[in-house]
Design goal:
Blueprint lengths: L11 H4 L3 E3 L8 E4 L5 E4 L1 H7 L4 E2 L2 E6 L2 E5 L7 H7 L3 H14 L4 H4 L3 E5 L4 E2 L13 E4 L6 E5 L5 H18 L11 H10 L9 H5 L7 H17 L17 H12 L4
Parallel strand pairs: 3-7, 7-10
Antiparallel strand pairs: 1-6, 2-3, 4-8, 5-6, 9-10
Helix pairs in contact: 6-9
Length: 267
């Protein structure tokens, strides 16, 4: 089964009532091969890549010619409406990868990654009905081909969600993990477990990790720590989010570990 990392936002149902003034002009879907390694897919092009791995929960619609609003209709937003709601998404996504490169994240760690920015406010898994109280903001699919991260590009802080999902890809490529399976980690992975004090009573194999509550999985710890590292090095006011009582917000010691992880592989 594909490995899926889902982050939810409790404010979705409140924001779904908001109306935004339209930005002038429309938008077309696009595919951009970033100079930093990933390939960025936006709107309907992203939908074509993701297929039925994830589906729209909340979407963006046009209740009148002058306004846009979120709606729970289970359909992808049009390219024009998505572009009006969130203009410049490809450029912002590419700039984020540029920031990661400037911080030392190696090109080989990001090369071939497919970053899909989907035209929805929140996502759901196949078989999950619309109307759940928690929509998903992003997902990661390592699969057998190039890894794929997907985010709800019209939701809250899609760049933050994208960074969390990128963290999963970096764990696979730099620590030797395989999605939620941390039983095969390399020396750097073992360093991370010791540094963070991940409970030894929790199994690291795929079945054991999937059997834990979502935020108790070590892959989720790592992804949030990576996000916090990025925020600390760029001045972003982003905190970490976890329901795991054993998880503690990372500090400078953890951030320095990430600096070292990437410094050894500068490109």
């Amino acid at each position: 089964m594909a490995f899926r990392s889902l982050k939810s936002w409790p404010l979705l149902l409140f924001v779904s009532l908001a109306l935004l003034l339209l930005h002038p002009g429309g938008a077309r879907a696009s595919v951009v091969e970033s100079a930093y390694g990933p390939i960025i897919y936006a709107w309907s092009d992203a939908v074509a890549v993701v297929g039925d791995r994830v589906l729209p929960e909340l979407s963006v619609v046009r209740p009148s010619p002058e306004t846009l609003s979120t709606a729970e209709n289970g359909r992808w937003a049009s390219d024009a409406d998505a572009g009006a709601w969130s203009p410049g998404v490809v450029e912002r996504t590419d700039a984020l990868f540029g920031e990661l490169a400037s911080l030392g994240v190696p090109r080989e760690a990001l090369g071939g990654l497919r970053a899909c920015v989907l035209p929805a406010f929140s996502l759901r898994l196949p078989g999950q009905a619309c109307g759940s109280a928690w929509g998903a903001a992003g997902a990661y699919f390592p699969g057998t081909g190039p890894p794929l991260v997907a985010v709800a590009g019209l939701g809250l802080d899609p760049e933050r969600v994208l960074l969390h999902e990128i963290g999963h890809c970096l764990a696979d490529r730099l620590l030797g993990t395989a999605g939620y399976d941390w039983s095969c980690i390399n020396g750097k992975g073992r360093e991370y477990l010791q540094l963070r004090g991940y409970p030894a009573s929790r199994p690291l194999g795929l079945r054991g990790q999937v059997g834990l509550p979502h935020d108790c999985r070590v892959a989720e710890w790592f992804a949030e720590d990576f996000l916090a590292w990025y925020a600390s090095r760029t001045g972003r006011a982003w905190g970490v989010f976890s329901w795991d009582p054993e998880y503690r917000a990372p500090g400078e010691e953890v951030f320095a570990w990430f600096d070292g992880l990437f410094a050894r592989r500068r490109w």
